[in-house]
């Protein structure tokens, strides 16, 4: 299922959402001018490497093989992508779901919410595979948290969804609650299936970053947004 748009109006311009999309696109386009060795060095330096975070020498800089300086990678990794499809799918989800969450939280809180969800994604992946030397990059962990925020705030909103069936393409309006819950179940299944690959030291999609980001989003949305209390009415006797 591919989300095309949601039928959920916003009341203010989603400046932070558009800025995040613009920053991701700009960094990706800029990286296209790098050679293979330079691109790999960029990912190794600014991507999250669980083994470096957990077992690295924090008194020695990254340039010398240590971990000092890796504290920035949970943030910098959110703005690196491995290809056009990786970038495009992430930015599509952020475009569809981010504006409404920003509309409710406000710009400052939404940015903090997004960053905290990204940190939750890092924690999720590092806890499952702490000895991995495979760098983790991409905004999908933070965007997973945005989905958690969206389904909490707008479970009944309608999402126009593209559903490919063999050679046929269908468009359906799906409640956000159903769309996002099915999406999360898929992450859980894929995460479980990836455990064997993790045990063998393989790479691939960081499914537990998606799961960690989503769970962080469920927690953070309740910290950042408080529903207004219903007004009490006084009845005349």
Could you characterize the architecture of this molecule?
This protein is mostly helical and 237 residues long. It has a single domain (2-224), classed as Up-down Bundle (Rhomboid-like fold). It is built from 9 helices and 3 strands. A 3-stranded antiparallel beta sheet has the order 1-2-3. A hairpin with a 2-residue loop joins strand 2 and strand 3. The longest helix has 24 residues, at 176-199. It is globular and about 50 Å long. The mean pLDDT is 90.
Please tell me the total number of domains: 1
CATH class reads Mainly Alpha
Spell the H/E element sequence: EHHHHHHHEEHH
CATH superfamily: Rhomboid-like
Overall strand count: 3
Write a concise synopsis of the structure shown.
Helix content is 58%, strand content 9%. The chain has helices at 15-31, 36-46, 50-55, 73-76, 84-105, 107-128, 140-153, 176-199, 207-224; strands spanning 2-6, 158-165, 168-175.
């Amino acid at each position: 299922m591919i989300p095309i748009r949601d039928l959920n109006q916003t009341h203010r311009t989603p400046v932070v959402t558009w800025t995040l999309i613009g920053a991701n696109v700009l960094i990706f386009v800029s990286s296209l001018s790098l050679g293979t060795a330079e691109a790999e060095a960029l990912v190794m330096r600014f991507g999250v490497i669980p083994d470096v975070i957990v077992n690295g020498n924090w008194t020695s800089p990254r340039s010398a093989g240590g971990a000092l300086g890796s504290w920035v990678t949970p943030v910098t990794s959110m703005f690196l992508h491995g290809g056009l499809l990786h970038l495009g799918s992430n930015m599509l989800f952020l475009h569809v779901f981010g504006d409404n969450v920003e509309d409710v939280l406000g710009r400052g809180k939404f940015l903090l919410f997004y960053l905290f969800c990204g940190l939750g994604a890092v924690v999720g992946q590092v806890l499952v595979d702490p000895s991995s030397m495979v760098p983790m990059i991409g905004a999908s962990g933070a965007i997973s948290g945005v989905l958690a925020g969206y389904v909490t705030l707008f479970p009944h909103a309608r999402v126009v969804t593209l559903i490919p069936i063999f050679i046929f393409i269908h468009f359906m309006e799906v409640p956000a609650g159903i769309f996002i819950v099915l999406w999360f179940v898929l992450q859980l299944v894929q995460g479980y299936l990836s455990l064997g690959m993790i045990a063998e030291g393989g790479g691939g999609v960081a499914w537990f970053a998606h799961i960690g980001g989503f769970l962080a989003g469920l927690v953070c949305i309740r910290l950042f947004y408080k529903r207004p209390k219903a007004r009490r009415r006084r009845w005349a006797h």
